Amino acid sequence: MSLNRSAQTHQILIERIPKATGHDVNHWLDRLDDGPGLLRFAERVNWLRAEHDLPHCYAAALVHEADLRRRAIRA
Description:
mainly alpha, 75% helix, 0% strand, DUF4287, DUF4287 domain-containing protein
């Protein structure tokens, strides 16, 4: 279940991730790829929160970004 945030809000969250977490977006996308292979949006968000202590808004933005990039590759 994806959150209904505007594209602008999503972009702002993505841009803030390096400063807020100390790691760039690609680092977090790699963690998701190397993670336990969860399929559902909420499961992946909860895994990032539990394993890496990320705030919910950033975890959700990262999972959404991963989904957007995956769809872009397929198209």
